[in-house]
Specification:
The strands form 2 sheets. The protein has a 7-stranded antiparallel β-sheet with strand order 4-3-7-1-2-6-5. A 6-stranded antiparallel beta barrel has the order 8-9-12-11-10-13. The protein is mainly beta and 214 residues long.
């Protein structure tokens, strides 16, 4: 589990194919900020742009680690097979603060940035989400974009999908990889976990019960 509070900005330094066909995944080499991996061990979970991955090799001295990402994960995410900056978050520990919201690290869909401009001291980010995710998006609700827990300020249901507007403060732009986004960029989206369970409860009919005679 994660919180959507980005703890470091890394870089995908190399992408290696794990096979020659489309059914094979990739091995990613990630460079991290100095000291970032000091408390990380083999097998630990780290979210890369919101997608939970397992550390397969580790070089604490060089500040590098690798992950193996399956073809299925590559198909359901964006930006994990390209060199460049990436948001990092280590898995939540039981005693950590829940500064953002409950995040599973499972990407629900891919959105597209439609607008990213500075407004005053902050930045307005607009993302078009697939229509299938529209019912999970609400005014002042939570959304995870490339691993960052953010608050939805406005929503608009359009023919092409649901466009959400989000305000990014300077700290967020400066301390995450969100500042590299431009109109047309694809981003990983994860809906609020609570909304997912609410939908399931509303869809499921109460189970028939038989009175118990004592």
């Amino acid at each position: 589990m994660f919180t959507g509070i980005i703890t470091g900005v890394g870089r995908i330094a190399a992408v290696h194919a794990l096979g020659s066909s489309s059914t094979h995944g990739k091995r990613l080499s990630i460079e991290c900020p100095s000291g970032y991996l000091d408390d990380v061990g083999l097998g630990d979970s780290i979210a890369l742009n919101g997608a939970c991955m397992t550390v397969t090799t580790l070089d604490v001295v060089k500040g590098q680690f690798t992950v193996d990402i399956s073809a299925e994960s590559l198909d359901k995410t964006t930006g994990l097979d390209q060199l460049g900056s990436i948001n990092l978050e280590k898995a939540l520990r039981a005693h950590d603060r829940l500064g953002g919201h409950i995040v599973s690290g499972h990407v629900d869909g891919i959105g597209c940035v439609t607008h990213f401009k500075q407004v005053g001291e902050s930045w307005e980010l607009r993302v078009l989400a697939p229509m299938a995710l529209a019912k999970y998006l609400a005014y002042k609700g939570s959304i995870t974009i490339n691993g960052a827990s953010l608050t939805v300020n406005r929503i608009a249901d359009l023919d092409a999908g649901c466009e959400m507007s989000i305000n990014l403060i300077p700290h967020t732009v400066q301390n995450t990889a969100l500042g590299t986004l431009v109109a047309g960029s694809n981003v990983n989206l994860e809906i609020d976990l609570i909304a997912r369970y609410v939908e399931r409860m509303l869809q499921t009919s109460p189970l028939a019960t038989t009175p118990v005679t004592l």
